[in-house]
Amino acid sequence: MSNSQIPTVKLLINGEFIESKTDQWRDVVNPATQEVLAKVPFATADEINAAVASAKQAFSSWRKTAIGTRARIFLKYQQLIRENMAELAALLTAEQGKTLADAEGDVFRGLEVVEHAAGIGNLQLGELANNVAGGVDTYTLLQPLGVCAGITPFNFPAMIPLWMFPMAIVTGNTFVLKPSEQDPMVTMRLAELALEAGIPKGVLNVIHGGPDAVNGICDHPDIKAVSFVGSTHVGTHVYNRASLNGKRVQCMMGAKNHAIVMPDANKEQTLNAIAGAAFGAAGQRCMALPVIVLVGESKEWLPELVAKAKTLKVNAGCQAGTDVGPVISPAALARITDLVESGVTEGATLDLDGRNPSVPGFEQGNFIGPTIFSDVSTKMRIYNEEIFGPVLCVLNADTMDQAIEIINQNPNGNGTAIFTRSGAAARRFQEDIDVGQVGINVPIPVPVPIFSFTGSRASKLGDLGPYGKQVVQFYTQTKTVTARWFDEDAEAGALNTTISLK
């Protein structure tokens, strides 16, 4: 395909998909083949301002739109996503690399949030206290903030945008989305379906870009709230910069999730769960499982875990039977490989080396297979840095208390899990562990949307998480009204009565 034939990714501004006037473009590359799929623009400052202005103008009418009307749009939207699931998954696999099964899961977990948004009539409810004083009622209203913005990462280009703009929009806000410049195509298809579902022009806008676009969002005076999912480095920058500009901010960031394996756990189920959580999606998940702590006799399970990991098939995500697809880019592969080499240099035992796998027909792909280190210490780079690849670190502990101490000393707090048949051990674990999301025989404890994503400590900045009840609070301002109405026939003197709430 010649350069002139490569399609360009559009901007969405005021209900129209428009060609950017920028002179900065980036290739969208298939990570299994290095084929250039499209070119994505880095929007100009004028284009970013136009997107925000469109959202601001639309807010004046959208905030007054009946809640039932908003809900019905998202009922239609979830139907359209379901009808186009295969197309969305294929597009996602082509630009991101994950297997078709993982891609469908990516879309489906976002779809669940869209379904939750359709129930907004039961979510955006205020409170009422009747007759708090003589004839006085106090009640609250949950009102939209205005223009909100979202910055999303490459690893879930369907799910995470769907975590953000549906809940922001259904609560009465308008939205400016900046998807990852590495894989924006499936996000744009979701935006097309959103317009088809009936979202009015200006209510959803999409821009593209890098650091300048991120800073433009953080600095723009008309943006009231910013949602972010991505690396700790960028997330900390976004939180600090946007907060200093007076915005409400939520940032879901890096992780180093651990699981404890107790010797009484169901061995086969546990090993299957670990393999899927550590190596699925090529390890490119903030809720992946890159560290396990084998307690007591469970350390003897390591050879069986290695054997199970060896059976996983490394191939392009579009190929049937693939378990582990490519990582997103050559740069990501180089960084993962460097970390693997550091583990060897620092003295960890490389039980399974996934570097340089043979993938016939896809020799140019960014592939690394399942990789397992044992004898890992908490001082090593492979333990302390987020690898974001299919690399598992194995630590040992004599007791559950020692294992809990290891986890609690790690600064991150996105997710953790325990594998056990003991209810007493599981209960103590959930009480004593200092991590926001806990799995009991569940390796990736991402909650369904009726709850909220509750990562903690260094994995999160901001008090309120995405989706669920917390995000309704995030995207709305609570307004408290204290009201007293007088009977027209009451004595005139009553009009001068002083209200006392003491």
Automatic annotation (TrEMBL):
<keyword id="KW-0560">Oxidoreductase</keyword>
<dbReference type="InterPro" id="IPR016161">
    <property type="entry name" value="Ald_DH/histidinol_DH"/>
</dbReference>
<dbReference type="GO" id="GO:0006574">
    <property type="term" value="P:L-valine catabolic process"/>
</dbReference>
<dbReference type="GO" id="GO:0006210">
    <property type="term" value="P:thymine catabolic process"/>
</dbReference>
<dbReference type="InterPro" id="IPR016163">
    <property type="entry name" value="Ald_DH_C"/>
</dbReference>
<dbReference type="InterPro" id="IPR015590">
    <property type="entry name" value="Aldehyde_DH_dom"/>
</dbReference>
<protein>
    <recommendedName>
        <fullName>methylmalonate-semialdehyde dehydrogenase (CoA acylating)</fullName>
        <ecNumber>1.2.1.27</ecNumber>
    </recommendedName>
</protein>
<dbReference type="Pfam" id="PF00171">
    <property type="entry name" value="Aldedh"/>
</dbReference>
<dbReference type="InterPro" id="IPR016162">
    <property type="entry name" value="Ald_DH_N"/>
</dbReference>
<dbReference type="GO" id="GO:0004491">
    <property type="term" value="F:methylmalonate-semialdehyde dehydrogenase (acylating, NAD) activity"/>
</dbReference>
<dbReference type="InterPro" id="IPR010061">
    <property type="entry name" value="MeMal-semiAld_DH"/>
</dbReference>
<feature type="domain" description="Aldehyde dehydrogenase">
    <location>
        <begin position="18"/>
        <end position="481"/>
    </location>
</feature>
<keyword id="KW-0520">NAD</keyword>
<comment type="similarity">
    <text>Belongs to the aldehyde dehydrogenase family.</text>
</comment>
